[in-house]
Amino acid sequence: MKTFHEIENALRDYSWMVKDIHRLKEELKTINISGTAQYGIEATMPKGSGISDPVGSEVTSRDRKNKTIKKFESKVKFIEENSFCITDDRQLAVLNCMLDGMSIVAISQHMGFSERKVYTIKDEIVKNMKENAGIAGNAGIAG
Questions:
Q1: What is this structure's pTM?
Q2: How much of the chain is in helix, strand and coil states, percent to nearest 5?
Q3: How many CA atoms lie within 13 A of 77 on its CB side?
Q4: Residue 125: is its pLDDT beyond 90?
Q5: CA-CA distance, 20 to 68, in Å (whole number)?
């Protein structure tokens, strides 16, 4: 995650990504191999030519969920590792509100700033995180 836009999106999406990581991990704890039972005349009728493979479907589903978890965890980890570089009080307050899932309008109303000012502060936060990631990457700290 190196571009300004990617960091900006990760900040905006942080709150729901954390929730979705927990939801997906809970889903992976359960096994869902279910077939659909048919009764009556439908049970005797010819079936489609597709081969039902509930185990294969479950493996595919779990693989997809694991990839999603890894993708979201990577973005969340980036934000968490680079949020320490924010030291300005206003930037810190806006960052915490964003990480809690508040919209720009809600932050503006909460802090008593114009929306334009909140956007400016958010852009400064993203710029600082991008610079911090670049410095850490050059030092071999971040990947």
A1: 0.77
A2: 75, 0, 25
A3: 9
A4: yes
A5: 9
